[in-house]
Amino acid sequence: MKIGYARVSTSDQNLNSQIDALRKAGCEKIFQDVASGAKSDRPGLEDLMKAIRPGDMLVICKLDRLGRSLQHLVSLASELIEQQIGLISLNDPVDTSTPQGRLSFNLFAALAEFEREIIRERTRIEGRPANRG
Fold first, then answer.
1. Which of 30, 37, 80, 109 could bond 85 through an S-S bridge, CB–CB 3.0 to 4.6 Å?
2. Strand pairing partners for 3?
3. Whether the Cβ atoms of residue 7 and residue 36 lie closer than 8 Å to each other
């Protein structure tokens, strides 16, 4: 079953174009949120994650509609893959139900890991006392 997820950041924005695209893509159910990407409280996403089952396909319009950050997106996509749930982004080259899509996703994951390592290294260096000598 194709299940859609749509999100806008503020109540001033409209979900209609995302919902139309998801319906056109064949989504039978569509979960939605009006919440900033930085907010972790997204009841629609929480309900979706409880409802989706192995063999289902999660369809989104853009990757930035799903994850709060690249790290969060990678974590969600990894969880979906582990549960044998595909992820399709209509406007990005990601479809984890195909080998090429999993490759694209793994590249995103590698970049996220690199970003985390750089941040850790920068934090470690900035936390040291200055070398005065």
1. 80
2. 29, 58
3. no
Assess contact for 74 and 108: CB atoms under 8 A. Answer: yes
The residues facing 59 across adjacent strands are 4, 88
Record the tokens describing residue 5, joined without a space: 């997820």
From the candidate CATH numbers 3.90.1150.180, 2.60.120.920, 3.40.50.1390, 2.60.40.10, the one assigned to the domain spanning 2-126: 3.40.50.1390
Locus of tokens 């750089």? 118
Pairing of strands 86-89, 57-60: parallel
9 noted as active-site residue:
yes
Catalytic residue among 9, 36, 75, 78, which? 9
pLDDT tier, 37 (very low <50, low <70, confident <90, very high otherwise): low
